[in-house]
Amino acid sequence: MKWSEFFTSSIGKKFVMALTGIFLILFLIVHVGLNACIFATWFDSEDHGAMFNKAAHFMGANWVPRLLEIGLFAGILLHIFQGYALEMKNRSTRSVGYAVKLGNRGSKWYSRSMGLLGTLVFLFLIVHIAQFWVPSRITGLEETIIDGKPYHDLYRRMIEVFQQPWVVALYLVGCASLLFHLLHGFQSSFRTIGVVNKRYMSLIQATGVAFSIIVVLLFALMPISMHLGWVK
Amino acid sequence: MEHYNMNLTLKVWRQKNNKAKGGFETYKLSDISSEMSFLEMVDVLNEQLIREGQDPIAFDHDCREGICGTCSMYIDGKPHGPWHANTTCQLHMRAYKDGDTITIEPWRANAFPVIKDLMVDRTSFDRIIQAGGFISVNTGNAVDANAIPINKDDADASFAAAACIGCGACVAACKNSSAMLFVSAKVSHLALLPQGQPEHKGRALNMIAQMDKEGFGSCTNTGACEAVCPKEISLENIARLNNEYLGAGLTVNN
């Protein structure tokens, strides 16, 4: 069997989706962990975003995260293109549809809507990257002095951006889409890579639900807190 | 259980042949006994159609005791009708009440082209089995069934997978028309036993290659197949098939 045959078979394509999916899940841990540094102000009134700005600086100033960042963009693009290719192929397998649909009697609506949910997350990502990644890495940001050294003031940028109600609403839609995408995707990716063991599978399912809810709640709390002035 | 008679309206998919454009026809049926099976009810309708000089509805059926996998109707949006873990032939009219309207469609999948009315061509499943759903043994006297010790859990799991009757309800219910539950049952029941080991790599690779060639979609683990399977084949088998396929695909030496 050639590698090309392996990766273009139906299971091979799903394998790529699962591996990139798990990689993106790992990235979410890093992302939510670093961003949660904005909440440092609740525990240290002198912080004013210093911990977050330092953490964000670390992600850009070191070659290890920069290299991972390239891998991340590659992973996202692969996940998106492969996802659309599979979605189109799967949609083409039934030319004549049913008059009465099975609907929720057999599966969860979000399990059947991964393409739609993924598209919403993708559209959100375009806005999100334009709002934060582009100014931070390319076009430049205002600087702030922490411990005598200049840092990009990404914290100030967040507070400014999240003053707009439509931005907060957009982020909440993005969070909701991610939540349901993860609720299915987390456990599905492990099934796809072949986890058969019942004990591990129930562990994975429980972890998946907890992970999806905790990560998304933390993300959603960021725009809300900044908009309502809980984090200043 | 109390016996009763009912009047029904049936909306049935009629299609002359594979090339013809099909459509729904509405039929009225009266005095259907609650003790009839669903297929007997369709038999009554067909007798009525023949008396009226019309073409009877073509549908698949054979054993009518739920073990052969031939019957196939998509009834009110669910393969094999409303009951759980049940085949169409084992569905009984006590599931319905007077005045009900029942919509009957064929399995829908490009890999299962309609032959006529409610009959679809499921030979794609046969070709998948031919690609690897077997073990090679020498002919001659039957060997002692207990010659090779087999762990009870594995034997049970293998038997549960072997219960698949190949009806295609999984394909019909799947939004992707994926045949993964069927293929996974056929791979699992052999892969779980020592007798299935010598050919296990080629089996997974060849059966999936054939499945893809037949035009079935890929699995997205929604679970619709498991929910409608008359033999309750578990989704766990799909994970095992993925495991078998990836293990073989990443390690074969040619």
TrEMBL record, chain A:
Key words of the record? Membrane, Transmembrane, Transmembrane helix
Q: Say yes or no: keyword Thylakoid present.
A: no
Record CDD domains? SQR_TypeB_2_TM
Q: Which residues cross the membrane?
A: 21-43, 63-86, 114-134, 166-183, 203-224
Q: Tell me which domain of life the UniProt entry assigns to the organism this sequence originates from.
A: Bacteria
What is the name of this protein?
Answer: Succinate dehydrogenase cytochrome b subunit
